[in-house]
Amino acid sequence: MWRCVIRTIYINCRFKTMRTCILLLAILATVSLLMILRSNHGQFDGVEKRGLRQKSSLLAPMQNTLKKSTDRAEAQDSGSGLKCVHPVLHPFDPAVMQFHGKVPPVDCSSAMMDWVYVINGTFHISRDAIRQYGNITCEYAPIVRQGDFSVGYASVVKPMLDGTPLQSDFFRVDCQSARGKTYNNIHAAVAVNSSVMERLRHFHSSLNSAPGLNKRPELKSSSLTSSLSSTRSTDHDEFSSQSYQNLNLSVFMLGFDSLSRMAWRRLLPKTHTLLVDRLGAIELEGYNILGDGTPAALLPILTGKMEEELPEARRGFQGVKPVDNHPWIWREFSKQGYVTAYAEDMPQIGTFYYRMLGFEHQPTDHCLRPFYLAAERAGKDNPKLCWGSKPRHMNFMNWFGSLFDMYRHFPKFFFGFYSEMSHNANNPAQAMDEDLAAFLQELEVKGHLNSTLLILMADHGARYDFIRATAQGRLEERLPFFSFRFPPWFRQQYPTIMKNLQTNSKRLTTPFDIHATFLGILNHSGTSYGDVSSRAISLFKEIPKERTCTHAEVTPHWCACLEWQPVSTSDPLVQEAVATAIDTINSYTQSKRDKCAKLALHNITRSLRYVPSSDDQSAEWKLLKYAKARRPAATELYQVSFRTLPGLAHFEVTCRRDVTSNTFSVDVRAISRINKYGSQPSCVQKSLPHLRPYCYCV
After folding, report:
1. Average pLDDT, the chain
2. Region of 294 on the Ramachandran plot (φ > 0 left; ψ -120 to 50 alpha; else beta)
3. How far apart are CA 439 and CA 442, in angstroms?
4. Which of 101, 381, 467, 593 could be joined to 473 by an S-S link, Cβ 3.0–4.6 Å?
């Protein structure tokens, strides 16, 4: 082949114009260079694969660096023109698969069957239980909320007859059979709430009678297959954004703790297939977190603000108050005639309760917290991960199913956040894959998703699991799973919105954008080009290509589209950065030195360097509002990971170096504790929970 190519060039150079000759020679040189690069790339791939076979999770980050850089280059060379290009990750990368292990479904078969159940707010005694144990009589005690940290019981109803309406959403039941068997349990259900029903009926009767406004569509039953292929109903044909700015969508956002987009694909394949391939959901591939932990993920979604911008609610700080006065998004939905519900499991570490004071008053029309507070004291005899005869995660999901059944004909804003199966480690999440897929399919078959925007999401990737010590784990923490699924009628009626969502799925998005999108559901402001200078852009608008972490107010520590370069851990500047980081951490616990040990360096596990652009520095300046003087333009960033003594705490810290003065500085929001601290900070756990990552109790 090469002989023919050279002969062709010879003939053209000898008998044709010099321009043609030069062009052919240039083509030959280009092709040769590409083949050489491709050959070298293959050699690098071989080196990388051999390196990934090593078992050390601390070596894996460096072994993956070349691959991530290559993937990033491929994305940049695709002609997209994006300023923020996130790395291309692979869910089954060997560096993370070394920590993957199969987990079986939750087995609750050893538990006694549930003797009672609830349908549409009505108490029932199981016919199967009666057949097995004889006639059954029950006593019923409604669970009553007593603030956000305790519950009580109302007067006992005895006997509680089959077919009796519930007095509250949650209750304790004590039953006895004619054959001497007993049943005691706490149940979560949905009682008919007359005040909520009256409010909804009044709002919507007024809305439907007002001239010039369109009625909300009623839900219609459908099967999974027919709903995906059907056209929108005539109810939806009446609706237009020109005459009514509310987009007529209910919202059901179901979140899970610590699951990256890659982890979702690894651990929840059946749910992912149903959601994306069959229901047509859109994944946000560039969804980037804003800070450390669940509050930094959920507060911007639910309030549009970071924790530092909201009224002080953290224990151990002056002027602290409950979080009731935060601008919760569910209040905006409630004002427009929506029924609202909020649920989290694991009440002791709840997002707004562990470090904060929680809610003085119940935040939404229905709230699952009282059930879990009561269940903590009553559920010790259940099989592992079970509540009665059902997995605990199914109890959580079924409660939302009951809410959908109860409020079938009213618009809804429901938010649930489930932690137990993924908070401490990712692998257990596998156990709920089939149940989660079945739950979503049931919602679809019942028609509940016909007028509902379904959002499945996570707050962040794994923060403490073994995977977090790898290079991919570091990026996965910053890139959680987030998806939108719209009803078929909405996709047809709003093609520009759907086109923008597809476009935005490849661009940098943040929790602020989700809040703006929720506001856009209530008051649709069109599908124009998004304002790149705004930190929050509704996903109904096109996010500009030139958007960077600077525009979105994502600091370099958390931005996943920056190219960090490896630096030797023995580099003097790395050593100085680590020393500054440890000094900064120790300064946070200085006032509690009688309780918290002074930390010292054990070893450095990773070091990276990034030279910020002028845009990056503008973002930092904008975010660090407490700074008293403007920084010099010449700066560098070092991201260092290290372990400390005592306790072997593992930190990842981004340090800023002022090149002019050759000094380092560290912001508290650029410090990540990337291994579990367990009982190490027990002496400050309740009184000063913000010191937990840094304190080793003496």
Report:
1. 84
2. alpha
3. 5
4. 467
